[in-house]
Amino acid sequence: MINPLTAQLLPSNPRSGNTTPGAASSHATAVADHPAQSNRPAHAGLAASIKADGGLDFLRARLEEKMGKLFEKAADKNPELAAAGPEAFFNTSTDVTPEATADRIVGFALGLRGIFSRQNTELSQDEMMARFETEIRRGINEGFGHARGVLGNLDLLNPEVEDNVDATWQLVQQKLSDFFDPAPVESEA
Hints:
mainly alpha
């Protein structure tokens, strides 16, 4: 699964027909196939790419070249991987849904509790948890604000992305509330 932000930031390479960084053919190969360009030094390709697209095409070509070599090395040792092709090697399949993203954010944040506790041994358990919650919520608020700013500056904060950020925010807040203020367990009479 391709991350939608990556797809927007790294558009497909029209010269090689590639849409993923792990595809077998590379821009470097495509450039070598053009006799007029094959004798150009690498910095000339970079300069042209910077003028054309801010250097993304040059970067993509170098990444495809390096990743292709990684795939070949791994495929030499693994016939199943070789049969599956480069897409299988480079597919990270990261779930970017709001639910999965919220789980990762909250899991990471709550995983810091042990460190926070060791750094604040002078506090009672209740004081430590209250301060930990304050710090975690502050950090998450700052992180979401920063992410929104970056996405906005890159002109990627379209309505769909905005909805996903909002949904992720709500899920994170609910998960934190469930952890820090769990609902009381009713006892049977």
